[in-house]
Automatic annotation (TrEMBL):
PANTHER family: METALLOENDOPEPTIDASE OMA1, METALLOENDOPEPTIDASE OMA1, MITOCHONDRIAL. Its cofactor is Zn(2+). Residues 437-484 form the LysM domain. It comes from Pontixanthobacter luteolus. CDD domains: LysM. This is M48 family metalloprotease.
């Protein structure tokens, strides 16, 4: 959640629908040069995308990522010069990559950290270039403009809690927060087409095309590990956390397409160049530690309910579980908490659904003035409760939870509502970011001994294996470079 961003709970602007991260469609010619219209469209939305996805990551690793991205992009025929493309590394803790018309290509620093060689980096960026070359987003644009972008957060709310009712759709629009909601996903056929084009570009650039399959394997393993650590039965990543929700199903296809082709991977060069990369949450945007969220700059903290997991977006923190969904965010505040709570309900309801709480009550939570209200709504799958719980942090700054749960079960969120507090300066100062530390395996080093150095309280060995692309039967060799996640300023 970005520092001091004030926003209301509204749907994604319709203009953004023209972007499409991973959407759909095919054209016969996947090598037609970038048109002036496409270049203008990309230039228009580029700064908006940077803002929505955490901004640009400007560490020393970014120039290297940009160089690899431009080198693979010119293999597509979209442009005959590296200057035809803009490659950006996003300051986001989510595994994601996408591209938009005009030669604008993006990857998050988190996804780069999951990779293990330069060929994998080139493969991911080449895959995204493939979407641009095949004009997938343009083919989907007309359809996107005809429909309201609900995203997976909306699908969870309307599908699990509300059914396919109008009130479900309306409420869902109010929960569209976070940087991952600007892009739609492609169909399986279009993902496979982009994989195939990415493999073609890898081969042209002299990389080992099998890297497309190995990076998908790592992403699938990370998805499964995230599900395990978060206590989810489902190993898929929520769509609002990734526009590539099903890498496991594409691994074998990608490896088969690569066939017997070979090339370079540049493993040691890659690991050396990404050493020190910020990993996980950026403290400037708040951090998630287990069930606790801390924002050292906003000086606040809260704890998610037992059995729930969180995703930190640029505009809100999402709290997800089987018995409900919630988000913590902020909006314009004029000093009147009751008016603030009612305005959030109005924003959630939108133009088509008047959403009014039965009452708005005042209280105090850990010394903070607070107000809350509940609205019970009839859905096709039964009644649901929508709760808005707001806190005053200063005369012009308030934060709130917006939660939805089956009727009578809103108490699930009561411990979280009561956990919101202002943190001390010493607590804020103690929030230290995690970073990649690339080390050389010594004689005596084992997976267990190196994993013990990982900056986590649980799952150290599992995290180490996934981070380094190691299977359950793989071992280490002295002299081999591996990645650790450590604490560091």
């Amino acid at each position: 959640m970005t520092r001091l961003k004030t926003l209301a709970m509204t749907s994604v602007a319709s203009a953004s629908l023209a972007l499409g991260g991973c959407m759909g469609g095919e054209i016969p010619d996947a090598s037609a040069p970038i048109t002036q219209q496409e270049a203008s469209q990309g230039a228009e939305f580029h700064p908006q995308l940077l803002a929505e996805f955490g901004g640009t990551y400007n560490g020393p690793q970014a120039a290297y990522i940009e160089s690899v991205g431009k080198n693979i992009a010119v293999q597509s025929g979209l442009g005959d010069a590296r200057s035809s493309f803009t490659v950006s590394t996003l300051n986001s803790p989510v595994n994601n990559a996408f591209a938009v018309p005009g030669g604008y290509i993006y990857t998050t620093r988190q996804l780069v950290a999951l990779m293990n060689n330069e060929a994998e980096l080139a493969g991911v960026l080449g895959h995204e270039v493939g979407h641009v070359a095949a004009r997938h987003s343009q083919r989907r644009q007309a359809k996107a403009q005809q429909n309201t972008l609900l995203g997976a957060a909306g699908a969870i709310l309307s599908g699990i809690l509300l059914g396919d009712s109008q009130i479900g759709n309306t409420l869902s629009k109010g929960f569209l927060q976070g940087s991952q909601l600007l892009t739609l996903k492609f169909s399986r056929s279009q993902e496979l087409q982009a994989d195939e084009l990415g493999i073609e570009y890898l081969n042209k650039a002299g990389y080992d095309p099998k890297a497309m399959g190995t990076v998908l394997q790592s992403l699938a393993a990370q998805n499964a590990l995230d599900a395990q650590l978060q206590g989810r039965n489902n190993a898929s990543v929520p769509e609002w956390a990734s526009t590539h929700p099903d890498p496991a199903s594409r691994v074998q296809t990608a490896l088969t397409k690569a066939g017997g082709m070979t090339g370079t991977v540049n493993r040691d060069t890659f690991l050396t160049r990404i050493d020190g990369l910020l990993y996980g949450d950026d403290p400037k945007q708040g951090v998630i530690e287990g069930r606790q969220f801390l924002h050292p700059e906003l000086r606040l903290s809260f704890t998610a309910p037992q059995g729930f997991y969180m995703v930190n977006g640029t505009r809100a923190v999402s709290i997800n579980g089987q018995s409900g969904q919630a988000q913590m965010s902020t909006a314009a505040y004029d000093g009147n908490l009751e008016r603030y709570v009612r305005s959030v309900f109005t924003a959630i309801g939108g133009e088509q659904q008047q959403l009014v709480p039965a009452s708005v009550e005042r209280t105090t939570v850990n010394g903070l003035p607070a107000s809350f209200g509940t609205a019970r709504v009839n859905g096709s799958s039964g009644q649901v409760d929508v709760v808005v719980f707001a806190y005053e942090f200063s005369n012009d700054q308030a934060f709130h939870f917006a939660a939805i749960s089956p009727a009578g079960r809103a108490s699930t969120f009561t411990p979280m509502f009561n956990s919101m507090r202002r943190i001390s300066q010493s607590e804020a100062n103690a929030v230290v970011p995690r970073k990649l530390d690339v080390v050389t395996v010594g004689r005596g080093d084992t997976i267990q001994s190196l994993a013990n150095r990982m900056a986590y309280d649980s799952g150290k060995v599992e995290r180490f294996r996934v981070l380094n692309g190691l299977g359950s039967g793989d071992t280490l060799q002295a002299g081999q470079k591996v990645k650790l996640v450590v604490r560091g300023r």
